[in-house]
Specification:
Elements (H helix, E strand, L loop, with lengths): L5 E3 L9 H17 L4 E2 L16 H11 L3 E5 L6 H11 L3 E4 L16 H14 L5 E2 L8 H21 L2 E5 L13 H8 L2 E5 L1 H14 L1 H13 L1 E2 L3 H20 L4 E4 L4 H6 L4 H9 L4 E2 L4 H13 L6 E9 L6 E6 L13 E3 L9 E5 L3 E11 L2 E12 L7 E6 L3 H10 L5 E5 L4 H11 L2 E4 L4 H9 L4
Parallel strand pairs: 1-2, 1-3, 3-4, 4-5, 6-7, 6-9, 8-13, 9-10, 14-17, 16-19
Antiparallel strand pairs: 11-12, 11-18, 12-17, 13-14, 15-16, 15-18, 16-17
Length: 468
């Protein structure tokens, strides 16, 4: 599991009970510890350990930055000081979680201690005035299931935002000439999202492969891993090339400080190394380093976002929307030559020759069925969006490569969205429901979420009142 540290800044307002606010801040701290959530506290900033004094904002911000927090949590332990919350949030520039505990019953004299809900209304408005995007978790008790689900979902949102803002993609070779659909605007990706590309030519990859073969030890380990975990239907020389390619890409990822790879994959590559790169891609994908085909930079970004949304619970897979199911009008084949990670397969994968190519080095396996999320980041003309929705694995005819037949709610609607754009025939999947996480992360990244099977109201409810 990925770990994300929150900046914990419980807030109060002077005209309401300070002791009650201190009490509820303590309850909230204890609940976060019980849930195993890492957080940086402000209990040493002032005697109350609360956010209410404008003079504390810079001290708190520096403390949170030094601790490497990825999100700001603003529990309203009474009404809260809305402008101080906004100033801290603006200073940090991180995702913000706004929540307050339910207020207790007024006492016998009609007095109220906190008015936390009222303060949430005020802070939400001031955050908007400061143009600060924020996530709202419904006014609930600490022991309500919405609290645990909502905070943990917010951690995943923070992870997506942080990973996206620090993404660097190893681009191995230019896009294949025939793939005009995978062209991208490198400058715009940097300007809008801080996504950086590290382009290298194919000869640099070949040189790294030769170096790996000469050193030998890592290549031998990969060969052993393949023989132990896969059915190897290729020559020892081809398997050595697969292992050397995997090791070379891993070295280059480290050398250039990357967290994903987009590789040209055909046709010059096969002529240069005598294999398909798919099995090597699969091996890196299994280690949580997304590798996508046909130099699809937007596909790599899709995979990075999906991996982060899943908090490393499951691996992602890069696929083509390929053909419609022969018997199910809402069924579709997700398939690619063979780059999917081993853990996605429901059977022991085989290294073999794929459809449409003469070189070995692809993985053959049907993926596990079950519920999935599918997404595609893409854009043109300066606008970017994330196609997003659910699918479930179903039975269907055998085909070569890595594949799974899926059913969606309305294939005609999905097909229309893909064709009319800005999307292409590539997507990324994961065996998990991360639709609410990705939807909410788009708010912080300046990406338009584009749902193909749910209404915005349905997904937003899963964010502010998860499981309710």
């Amino acid at each position: 599991m990925a770990t994300v540290k929150l900046g914990f800044a419980p807030t109060r307002r002077a005209i309401f009970s300070a002791p009650a606010a201190v009490e509820y801040a303590g309850y909230t701290r204890n609940k976060l510890r019980e849930l195993g959530i890492e957080f940086e506290d402000i209990d040493d900033i002032n005697e109350e350990g609360l956010l209410f004094d404008d003079n504390d904002v810079e001290t708190i911000a520096k403390k949170f930055e030094a601790a490497g927090v990825k999100g700001l949590f603003l529990p309203h332990c009474n009404f809260g000081t809305e402008y101080v919350c906004a100033r801290l949030a603006k200073r940090l520039g991180l995702p913000v979680l706004l929540w307050g505990p339910r207020d207790e019953r007024p006492d016998e004299n009609g007095m109220r201690l906190r008015d936390s809900q009222c303060g949430l209304f005020a802070t939400g408005k001031v955050l908007r005035r400061f143009r600060i995007p924020f996530t709202y978790l419904t006014n609930c008790n600490l022991d309500d299931p919405e609290f645990e689900k909502g905070v943990k979902q917010f951690l995943a949102v923070c992870n997506v935002v942080d990973v996206m803002r620090h993404t660097r993609i190893l681009q191995i070779g230019p896009r294949p000439f025939d793939f005009w659909s995978t062209m991208c605007n490198e400058g715009e990706l940097l300007e809008k999202f801080n996504v950086q590309l590290s382009p290298i030519p194919l000869p640099e990859l070949y040189a790294e492969m030769d170096k790996a073969k000469k050193e030998g030890a890592e290549v031998s380990e990969v060969v052993t891993y393949c023989n132990d975990n896969m059915c190897v239907n290729c020559s020892p020389m081809a398997l050595e090339n697969i292992a050397a390619l995997k090791v070379a890409m891993a070295h280059l990822v480290k050398k250039y400080g990357c967290n994903a790879v987009a590789i040209q994959c055909w046709n010059a590559l096969q002529d240069g190394i005598g294999i398909m790169p798919c099995a090597a891609n699969s091996l890196l994908n299994e280690e949580g380093i997304p590798v996508v085909c046909e130099t699809d930079i937007h596909g790599a970004i899709s995979a990075v976002m999906m991996e982060a949304a899943g908090m490393d619970r499951n691996r992602t897979f890069f696929a083509d929307w390929t053909v419609r199911h022969p018997d199910n009008d809402n069924g579709e084949l997700l398939q690619h030559c063979g780059p999917w990670p081993i853990s996605v397969a429901k059977e022991k994968p085989t290294i073999d020759i794929p459809v449409a190519f003469d070189y070995t080095g692809s993985v053959m396996a049907e993926a596990k069925h079950g519920p999935m999320t599918l997404c595609r980041f893409d854009g043109d003309e300066g606008e970017y969006s994330l196609l997003l929705g659910h699918a479930k694995g179903i039975d269907g005819p055998y085909t070569r490569g890595t594949y799974v037949w899926v059913e969606v709610e309305d294939l005609a609607k999905l097909e229309y969205k893909v064709v009319t754009g800005p999307y292409i025939h590539h997507c990324v999947g994961i065996h998990d429901d991360v639709v609410p996480v990705l939807y909410e992360a788009c708010k912080y990244l300046g990406i338009k979420p584009d749902l193909y099977d749910s209404s915005e109201e349905e997904v937003e409810r899963q964010i502010y009142a998860p499981g309710k």
